[in-house]
Design a protein that fits this description.
By secondary structure, this protein is an alpha+beta fold. The protein contains nine helices and twelve strands.
């Protein structure tokens, strides 16, 4: 049995006109590290769930991406993080929303799945679950990045002036991974800091099962990135699976329709990474770019940003 893995570091998060060779090289390196973390698990016969968790942890540790250490700031100057994991074997899922403290929010989401009877938790009780699971916590100094803080100040300035420069980076930015392991099982994981300057307490599509994260062995595993409110309203991730299950569409057909029609025609800029039960991979996006990478057993890993 062959394994497959795909990762993303957000869609539409940096315009090509603003990209430098140095930044581009750094993003590719970060994506490769995430692929290597997940593939190491899969190559050894590990589970898809362990692989996507490892990949997302690597992306959360990289300040370039809007999750974990690189999370953006709310309009109150705080960082609030969302994360989710889903196991395609039985649709078990765990998510956390608007939390701060765990170095790797995706591990907090997995703790909710594995140590409680719930799917979604937030606030002090979510943090209590993470602490009981022995997860590592960090303070504001660890999570602070000057680039994210500067982006907040510019966003607040534009908002006060009643201006909008149309930069998608202000409301985009997520990381995620999907995998199929050697036993044919699927899993998905997603993590985000949300929008730059989002309202405190805002929860996006990432921790909403069926919107930004979904996995079912019968069809596919999906992790989304983009305009979260639209992903939620169009239940983007589960819609891909539904089109496969009920309309008999291939993974490529279903994912492309959702991204290029359902989302695009309704202000839902962004994209998804998805893997089906046969290990096929698709990475469609309707924005200028999406940080993405993929690898399959016996093949060399590939990373890309723009079309």
């Amino acid at each position: 049995m062959r394994y497959s893995l795909a990762v993303h570091g957000g869609a539409g998060t940096i315009l090509k006109t603003n990209m430098t060779p140095e930044k581009e090289a750094a993003y590719h390196a970060g994506l490769r590290r995430a692929l290597d973390a997940g593939e190491t698990v899969l190559r050894a016969g590990g589970s898809a769930l362990d692989a996507v968790t490892a990949s997302v942890c690597a992306l959360e540790d990289e300040p370039l991406f809007n999750a974990g250490r690189g999370a953006v700031f709310t309009d109150q100057g705080e960082q609030e993080m969302d994360a989710a994991v889903m196991d395609g074997r039985d649709r078990r899922a765990g998510t956390v929303a608007s939390i701060f403290g765990p170095k790797n929010p995706v591990l907090a989401a997995r703790a909710v799945m594995e140590h409680t009877v719930h799917v979604t938790m937030t606030g002090p009780n979510a943090l209590a679950v993470a602490r009981k699971a022995g997860l590592e916590f960090a303070g504001k100094d660890y999570f602070f990045t000057q680039a994210r803080w500067d982006a907040l100040q510019e966003t607040l300035r534009l908002k006060k002036a009643g201006e909008d420069d149309g930069d998608p980076a202000r409301r985009h930015g997520t990381v995620g991974a999907v995998a199929r392991d050697q036993d044919g099982n699927l899993a998905a994981a997603t993590s985000t800091g949300g929008w730059t300057g989002k309202a405190a307490g805002r929860i996006g599509d990432t921790p909403v099962i069926g919107a930004g994260t979904f996995a079912d062995n019968a069809t596919c595993a999906v992790s989304g990135t983009g305009h979260g409110e639209i992903f939620m309203r169009w239940t983007a991730a589960s819609e891909i699976a539904a089109r496969m299950r009920h309309a008999g569409e291939s993974l490529e057909q279903a994912a492309r329709h959702v991204v290029m029609v359902d989302l695009k025609e309704n202000d839902g800029s962004g994209g998804v990474i998805a893997i089906d039960r046969d290990g096929n991979i698709t990475l469609p996006f309707n924005s200028e770019g999406m940080y993405r990478g993929s690898v399959r057993s016996g093949e060399q890993p590939q990373t890309a940003i723009y079309r």
